[in-house]
Fold:
Amino acid sequence: MDSLIHADVFFFITSISIFIVTVIIVIAAFYIIKILRDLKHISERAKTEGDELLDDMKKLRENVKIQGAGLKNISKFFSSLFNKRK
Structure:
């Protein structure tokens, strides 16, 4: 009879502890899911901002190529003027 009472107490304590551990795991999973959603939002935003940055860099490179060729012609013009004076 004494061992039956010990078994009942053991199962009662085990049931309570499993319930508490399950509640803690569910709460932790809730917060982990929330953090993962925030990380997904941040990574999507970083991706779009990175794409926009790449587009801006392409436009800047094109402008430098166009204006660089213009600057090259202007520098040739001025150098030809100075070369004629010599």
Remarks:
- Residues 13 and 19 are 10 Å apart (CA to CA).
- The longest helix spans residues 2-85.
- The chain has a mean pLDDT of 85.
